[in-house]
Design a protein that fits this description.
By secondary structure, the chain is of the alpha+beta class. The chain is built from 19 helices and 11 strands.
């Protein structure tokens, strides 16, 4: 979700950019970073992580909420994504011209929408005339409520106070909120950022659902690749919620109610589910003071029951074929363990050697030598990391190449790793790239904040972040061959093909 860009003074823009690009050399070194991270745990269970970097007067943060699409209930998929959108709509004090009057109108709209929804769900048995009257009345209430809204006030306040890079993202595993500010705006940040988790107002909710519906149309329904991925992931995960779309199904989006979303928020967005990482020109004493003053007011949520559902072992290859006038695509996915599993470092190495970069086997063989693929790569961690996930191999055939022929060529490369293993040179190349990419990801303030939060909630604690290089170094060629043979098997794979079929009236 992208919001208003910045118009703050040029000097602050330069400082913010400098913070985002601050080199790790300004610190004591990677090995010392683990000793530099400070932890603040508030009475409500919310945790704040701090890494001080005083080279430029700015800081970045990540508010990481351990709530994603995997935490949703059947019939209400996509509500985590809705809560992300609503977090930018303001609070009881931000975004409104008269909250008391606005609240009354919002409650009236909720009651009216419930009647409209009940009538719609009757289908052909519904009263069309009554529904039309309800919709007209609802539109009038919406117009009156909109007149009390101060549009984009939250974003504007952040911008006026020097904020840059404001955005958010919802995944299967979590929802993240982030931006950067001058360090003299620490208390402003603590006040306004915490308030949207304490007193959020889901204003303009039904209008925003229309925005989300259009977003789904663009990224899924009007995108052949998006449709293929959704079909593939639904087929690959027949039980686990990883198989459900993050954005929700259209029928769910069109039936959301504001009370549904508020109930989801209150039951999931508890203080104990939130970790905030702050990296930059911030001192511990001042951060702890404002954190206890503002973030300490975030209420805890009821402890959610742990997810019991485990994806059953796949017993045979699954396939889905879609026809479309667009360019063909091949997806081959294999079930692999979660990010904490001992095999994950070797699986990451396998994905890199097989299909990441111009030196990978897929690129060298299929793109450069055989020219059967316009594009080919592989990567792990799809669709999430908290639970067992998938390693994907993806290819786009060159003109005149049948998708099934490219699929077989891709499978040949997979089978070759399992049969022959990888060379020491390939493994050394992977380790060099992995080390460089990892350290590079910690150089920027926002990159470090993101990695700290991820490690805290996904890996079991932020200190595990600093074990990453040791885990990379420990991988052997035998490990890579073993995981290829164990996980990249025929019965464990799900294949998705997008096959070109000319539109009606179009020449073949």
């Amino acid at each position: 979700m992208t919001l208003i860009g910045g118009k703050f003074p040029r000097r602050l823009a330069v400082l913010a950019l400098a913070a985002l690009l601050a080199p790790a050399a300004a610190l004591a070194g990677y090995e010392d970073l683990a000793n530099e991270v400070q932890e603040i745990v508030l009475d409500n269970g919310l945790k704040i992580l701090l890494l001080e970097r005083h080279d430029v007067p700015v800081f970045s943060f990540m508010t990481y909420v351990d709530v994603g699409a995997v935490d949703e209930d059947m019939n209400k998929g996509g509500l985590a994504h809705v809560c992300e959108h609503m977090a930018f709509k303001g609070t009881e004090e931000v975004g409104t011209r008269d909250y008391r009057r606005e609240r009354e109108l919002l409650e009236d709209m909720d009651a009216l929408y419930a009647e409209m929804l009940a009538e719609r769900l009757k289908g052909d048995l519904g009263d069309a005339e009554r529904l039309s009257d309800l919709e007209a009345e609802f539109a009038e209430l919406q117009e009156r409520a909109d007149a009390l809204v101060e549009p984009n006030e939250f974003s504007k306040l952040v911008e006026i106070n020097g904020g840059v890079g404001m955005n958010a993202a919802t995944s299967t595993d979590a929802t993240r909120y982030f931006y950067s500010l001058p360090s003299n705006q620490l208390e402003f940040w603590a006040a306004i950022e915490s308030d949207r988790f304490i007193n959020p107002v889901f204003r303009q909710f039904y209008k925003e659902c229309n925005v989300i519906s259009e977003e789904r149309r663009q990224v899924v329904e009007s995108s052949p690749q998006g449709r293929l991925y959704e079909e593939w992931v639904t087929l690959a995960y027949k039980a686990h919620p990883y198989g459900q779309p993050i954005i929700g199904h259209r029928s769910e989006i069109e039936a959301y109610t504001r009370p549904d979303a508020e109930a989801f928020f209150r039951s999931r967005y508890g203080a104990q589910k939130i970790v905030v990482a702050v990296v930059g020109d911030v001192y511990r004493d001042e951060l702890e003071r404002v954190a206890r003053k503002y973030w300490g007011e975030v209420p805890p949520a009821p402890e959610a029951e742990a997810l019991r559902l485990v994806e059953p072992e796949q017993l045979g290859e699954r396939r889905v074929v879609l026809e479309d006038p667009s360019q063909p695509v091949v997806i081959v996915g294999y079930h692999v363990p979660d990010a904490r599993h001992a095999d994950t470092p070797a699986i990451d190495a396998l994905a890199d050697i097989l299909g990441q970069g111009r030196s990978s086997r897929l690129y060298e063989t299929l793109v450069k030598e055989e020219k059967s693929a316009l594009f080919a790569m592989s990567f792990a961690g799809i669709p999430g990391d908290k639970y067992p996930n998938s390693l994907l191999v993806i290819g786009i055939p060159n003109s005149g190449v049948d998708p099934e022929d490219l699929e077989q060529a891709m499978l040949d490369q997979v089978d070759r790793v399992a049969a022959e293993g990888v060379t020491e040179a390939e493994l050394a190349g992977y380790k060099n790239r992995a080390r460089a990419n990892f350290v590079r990801g910690l150089e920027s303030n926002n990159g470090m904040a993101n990695q700290l939060c991820y490690a805290e909630k996904v890996l079991g604690g932020w200190r595990h972040l600093f074990e990453r290089l040791d885990r990379i170094e420990a991988v052997t060629a035998a490990d890579v061959q073993r995981v290829a043979g164990e996980y990249l098997t025929q019965k464990n794979r799900t294949v998705g093909l997008l096959v070109t079929k000319p539109a009606a009236g179009q020449d073949s």
